[in-house]
Amino acid sequence: MGLSLISSTNLALRLSQIPKSFSPDLERKLPLSLNFTSNSIGLGILDYGARRVSFISTIPARRLCSKAVLSEIPNEKRYPKVGAESTGPIPSNVLLGAVENAAKTGAEVVMDAVNKPRNVKYKGLTDLVTDTDKMSEAAILGVLKRNFSDHLILGEEGGIIGDSSSDYLWCIDPLDGTTNFAHGYPSFAVSVGVLFRGKPAAAAVVEFVGGPMCWNTRIFSASAGGGAFCNGQKIHVSQSDQVEQSLLVTGFGYEHDDAWATNINLFKEFTDISRGVRRLGAAAVDMCHVALGIVEAYWEYRLKPWDMAAGVLIVEEAGGAVTCMDGGKFCVFDRSVLVSNGLVHAKLLERIGPATETLKNKGIDFALWFKPENYHTDF
User: Fold this and answer.
1) Which tens digit of pLDDT belongs to each residue from 243-264?
2) Average pLDDT over residues 65-73
3) Which of 13, 98, 223, 320 has the fewest CB atoms within 10 Å, i.e. the most exposed one?
């Protein structure tokens, strides 16, 4: 627990050395890596143009003391996959390099602002937005428009941009956890996920850790069928199969209605029977923590596609399970999500599922939302 995968802010967001808790046999083997500096906004990818790239070096490390690979652990219940069956005409390593580059570009903007005064505005009574959110999204859009001008983009701040006939949809959260960022509280990230025909194909989340005067970053990434990684090293969900031995995470939206009240009750129930329930305030970060194996599960109502597109794929590729909160098959346009290590999923659904069904019976809308008109999907 508590794996440290961080990088120093004094090195322009370069990735750190490989922590000793990781085995060399888990070393990532990708043909494409990207230099994370202020000059790395351009992207070198096959037909999209070429440029020099730099590779992350590794150092020998001792073997993991315990296994945490879900596929090696018997599990009676299997859940439908949410990831894309392929990445389409763009090779998976190229698409993964693109999402990593886009997320890192946004993170450079956030890092530049992290120790400076914030200009905070309100989208709602308590829903904040800062200039940094907008600047990060603009930087990410610049990368995507230069390299994928024919793709569709859904950004938290800018909405829908591009060609709705494209099979690719980029979901951008330029600053997940804006309230935490505004207060200098260490749980926020830049999240970028790309869908192929409606299903997550590649994902990257740059998490900011530490705190004022000691900010660091770590990058989580995944491609459909290619595994999940943190700072280039393969990660796996935990193998705890008991809720009583689990650390859980949830979140609450800005609307204090029936769904909010239901989750308050779930928070109370699981606090009584688990090792604790945390509420950190950044959905992409919470899901990455499930993938990293430092918490067992996360759930929340009424997240948006840009909140979930990257995180759900990272969890699944780390060996975890993803469903709606009623236990149904999940897509990124759904209004609820439950991610876990897979082993406690069914046990969590014993309480979360009926509570969600009660909300549906009350008429609470759980229909798909924020799905671009005319965007083609495989579901």
Assistant:
1) 999 999 999 998 899 999 999 9
2) 34
3) 13
What HEC string does the chain produce? Answer: CCCCCCEEHHHCCCCCCCCCCCCHHHECCCCCCCCCCCCCCCCCCHHHCCCCCCCCCCCCCCCCCCCCCHHHCCCCCCCCCCCCCCCCCCCHHHHHHHHHHHHHHHHHHHHHHCCCCCCEEECCCCCEEEHHHHHHHHHHHHHHHHHCCCCEEEECCCEEEECCCCCEEEEEEEEECHHHHHHCCCCEEEEEEEEECCEEEEEEEEEEECCCCCCEEEEEEEECCCCEEECCEECCCCCCCCHHHCEEEECCCCCCCHHHHHHHHHHHHHHHHCCEEECCCCHHHHHHHHHHCCCCEEEEECCCHHHHHHHHHHHHHCCCEEECCCCCCCCCCCCEEEEECCCCHHHHHHHHHHHHHHHHHCCCCCCCCCCCCCCCCCC
pTM: 0.81
* pLDDT at residue 45 tops 90: no
